Amino acid sequence: MLNNLPLPFLLAIFAVAGAAVVAASIRATGLADAIADRTRMGEAMAGGLILGAATSLSGVVVSVSAAFSGDASYAFSNAVGGIAAQTLFLAIADLLHRRANLEHSAAEPANLFQAVLLIILLSLPLCAVAGPDVSYLGVHPVSIVLFLAYIAGVRLAGDVKEQPMWRPVRTTDTRRDTPEDPDEADRPVRGVALRFVGLVAVMGAGGLVIAQAGGQFIDRFGLSSSLVGSLITAVVTSLPEFVTTLVAVRRGALQLAVGGIIGGNTFDTLFLVAGDAAYREGSIYHAIEANDIYWLGTGLLMTAVLLAGLILRQREGPARIGIESVLMMGIYLTALTVEVTS
């Protein structure tokens, strides 16, 4: 529907769609915090399951739309590029949390488990890429395994939240997950949930427009699908995670901030499942470019570094942020250089 639009109008529509997604995500952060309190779910689980999935919706729309149009590289790079970008956003948020290292303050067993789950889920597509080119009804078996692993992992993450087998050491800089309003848990959740669903619909519609605009950038400017997917649409559709992370940190909901990024990234692996199902020319894992695999490895490496930071819980590192944040920035900048120069 954007094929014949003049370039200025195309760019304007792209910007408006991105702004709508970001604006909806800002409002969704406060609602997710309220849902966490009223359902007694906790910020880490609400961030990972509710806020993470909601803010990822625009991204999954982009990947499905791209895969359905036959551009496997665009669909794949949008997914794994978004995971890398969102992990970078957590490092940037660490810069703004001046009291102590964000990973130290947001100690939460559920976040550790979700980081481990994310590493597992990112390893499965890597196995699919290196394995035989097989598919059944156009879907690679690894996509089925990835989906089932996600469902099982979410259930186990809930168990970790409800019945943790260990607890982090509390320090003066550790932020406890407690409701800002003691009466919040006694209030009904239905109205908040309905408003949240409305904002999710706005994010999904924005994602559809962003996907079509990104396709136009590929066609009109001759840009590679990997570059557009990993550095343009992935970053734009990841802006909700960036905004919600900054808002959550400012509100003092640190577990929500970290859980939102890790949980959103975990949900983003399902982009590959949806993309594989939408791609009708075989397995999406064997129709991608080398740079797409590099971004997959980048997301995997950044997640491992983040997990190490969550376990280490360094209070203060270089420039008053954790060493893991410095490393994540360096890893992302390296991937950015590889993408632009290749």
Question: What does this 3D model show about the protein?
Answer:
The protein has 342 residues and is an all-alpha fold. The chain has one domain: A middle domain of Talin 1, CATH 1.20.1420.30. Helices cover 75% and strands 0% of the residues. It is built from 13 helices and no strands. The chain has helices spanning 7-39, 43-55, 57-68, 72-96, 102-105, 109-130, 141-162, 190-221, 225-251, 254-268, 270-278, 290-312, 323-341. Helix 3 packs antiparallel against helix 4 (72-96) and helix 3 packs across helix 8. The longest helix has 33 residues, at 7-39. The radius of gyration is 19 Å and the shape is globular.
Task: Provide a concise account of the structure shown.
Its main location: membrane. GO terms for molecular function: calcium channel activity; calcium, potassium:sodium antiporter activity. With 342 residues, the chain is mainly alpha-helical.
CATH class identity:
Mainly Alpha
Helix content: over 70%
The whole-angstrom Rg is 19 Å
Total beta strands: 0
Low-confidence stretches: none
Q: Quickly count the helices.
A: 13
Strand content: under 5%
What is the CATH superfamily classification? NCX, central ion-binding region
Briefly note the structural class of the backbone.
mainly alpha
Count of folded domains: 1
At the fold tier of CATH, the topology name is A middle domain of Talin 1
| Structural shape | globular
- Name the helix and strand elements from N-terminus to C-terminus, one letter apiece: HHHHHHHHHHHHH
End-to-end Cα distance: 31 Å
Please identify, by name, the CATH architecture: Up-down Bundle
Q: Sheet with the most strands? A: none
Report the average pLDDT across residues: 80
Pfam families: Na_Ca_ex (PF01699)
GO molecular function: calcium channel activity; calcium, potassium:sodium antiporter activity
Membrane topology: Multi-pass membrane protein
Protein name: Cation transporter
